[in-house]
Prior knowledge:
This protein is α+β, with helices and mostly antiparallel strands. The protein has helices at 4-9, 11-19, 113-122; strands spanning 26-33, 36-42, 44-52, 55-70, 79-97, 104-106.
Amino acid sequence: MKSIEDLKKLIPTIVGQIIREDHNVGKCHYEQDEDGWNPCSEYEPNYFTFEKDGWLIEVTYECCGEWDIDHGDYWTPPSSEPTKAWGAVTELSAIHCDDCTGEETEFEDNDLIGLWEAIDIALENIA
């Protein structure tokens, strides 16, 4: 049976792998209303799975960002890339299944707080 401490030991590995992912990044733009200019964000969903040594950890998160968009001209093709991007976890689950005993450990939401927070911090500035 795996413990919360075993899960915490995986945090650096999982965070490192999520940061290296090719994130789907939505666009953030500003719209003017009676209160002035306000950000309008179009978040894109992302999904990450960690499967190793009986662990199954699934993370759903959303990303958004500010983009540098060049419409191109006669000599230069159009291009776009995020100049600043960020994200946040929306769902997280963790299960461990021991291959030898068949015992399954499912972690509760309270058990996942440390992992959730670590991923959120890592996603604060991804580009």
